[in-house]
Amino acid sequence: MVYLIHFQDKLHHAQHYLGFVETNLAQRIQLHLSNRGAKLIAAVNNQGIRWQVVRVWHKGDRNLERKLKNYKKSRCFCPICCNNQQRTNQ
Ligand SMILES: [Zn+2]
Predict the structure, then answer these.
(1) Between 89 and 5, where is the model more confident?
(2) What is the pTM of this model?
(3) Cβ proximity of 45 and 35 under 8 Å
(4) For a disulfide at 17, which of 5, 43, 46, 69, Cβ 3.0-4.6 Å?
(5) 43 φ, ψ to 5°?
(6) Is the separation of the CB atoms in 7 and 81 below 8 Å?
(7) Pairing mode, if any, of strands 51-57 and 14-20?
(8) Could you give the CA distance from residue 3 to residue 56 in angstroms, rounded to a whole number?
(9) CA-CA distance, 40 to 32, in Å (whole number)?
(10) What range does the domain containing 57 cover?
(11) SS3 of 47, please?
(12) Residue 23 C-alpha to ligand 1 middle, in angstroms?
């Protein structure tokens, strides 16, 4: 499945992490929490930035992960950021 993590504060210009895990998302989150999952998340942890998984594509595979990454607009998939955007547009 493909998952999207939203950081409470930006790290440099990044505020999202898009990842893929075969089956065990809970286990992957534990890895992220212990800085063994991804360099970006480890850096976020080291900055004391809180983060959360905001969206999961349960049927997502590596193709979907690549496709979503290629959009380079993770915030469009993020319910937190998209809601904020709508509010400022109104
Ligand atoms: Zn977001």
Answers:
(1) 5
(2) 0.88
(3) yes
(4) 5
(5) -65, -40
(6) no
(7) unpaired
(8) 4
(9) 9
(10) 2-89
(11) coil
(12) 23
Q: How far apart are the CA of 27 and the centre of ligand 1, in A?
A: 22
Ligand 1 centre and the CA of 75: distance in Å? Answer: 5
Structurally, the chain folds into a number of domains equal to 1
Q: Which residues pair with 17 in a beta bridge?
A: 5
Mean pLDDT computed over every residue of the chain: 91
Structure tokens at 78: 């993020």
Question: How far is it, in rounded angstroms, from Cα 46 to Cα 77?
Answer: 25
pLDDT in tens, 38-78: 999 999 999 999 999 999 999 999 999 999 999 878 888 99
For residue 24, how far is its CA from the centre of ligand 1 (angstroms)?
22
Number of H helices, E strands in the chain: 5, 3
